[in-house]
Amino acid sequence: MEIIYAQDNLSLGQMAARWVAREILVCPHLVLGLPTGSTPIGMYHYLTRLAQEGIISFSQVRTFNLDEYVGLAADHPQSYAFFMREHFWSKVDLPNGNVNIPRGDVSNLAEECRRYDDALQRVGGIDVQILGLGPNGHIGFNEPSHNMEIHTHVVDLTAATIQANRRFFPDSEAVPRQAVTMGVGSIMQAQKILLLVSGESKRDILTKTINGPVSTEVPSSILQLHADITVLTDIKLNRR
What we know:
Layout (H helix, E strand, L loop, with lengths): L1 E4 L3 H18 L4 E4 L6 H12 L9 E4 L1 E3 L10 H8 L11 E2 L8 H14 L5 E4 L21 E4 L2 H6 L13 E4 L2 H5 L3 E6 L5 H9 L17 E5 L7
Parallel strand pairs: 1-10, 2-3, 2-6, 3-5, 6-9, 9-10
Antiparallel strand pairs: 4-8, 7-8
């Protein structure tokens, strides 16, 4: 595990974008796993700039998003599909046919999960997975649990996650209670992982992620077992 420190959130976004850009320059047909949330917004901004300046191209890149809320259509302002269009997809030369995200508004969610896993399998899995870190250690929406789901699945969101996402909705009752999420198996099978962590509120969970025991109660701790993971953070930590 390599840890790279950024001076602040702005620098973190720039550094993350350069890291991803290098991977695309080496492999123009990269399969790229993408997150949502406030932390990667800076990365998307600078990737957009690099693409618009002609330094990199997404024309051959295929993307797979980690998750989506159950019950929200792709055009709902708080859906992750809407987020990605606003911050990234619509701003770069990424073909619509190369974009993949779970659907949370279908009648048969089990079938949707199988469809998503089949799509991942057809491309040979993810080359580079970008992750954020939830306040309770969730990666994607893989929440603390007694076991870890390997495949794409429907998950009940914890009270902590619902509270953390409350700020994006009119009130807590409007926050979805479930999500469709890529499984830990698909995440861990990625060739490379870049974990983005920003803000002092994440200090404790980042410490547990990096230095704590590997436990399903801290899903992100499983990243310690990955062969090629880079942590990019603006939180200065003492390594044991």
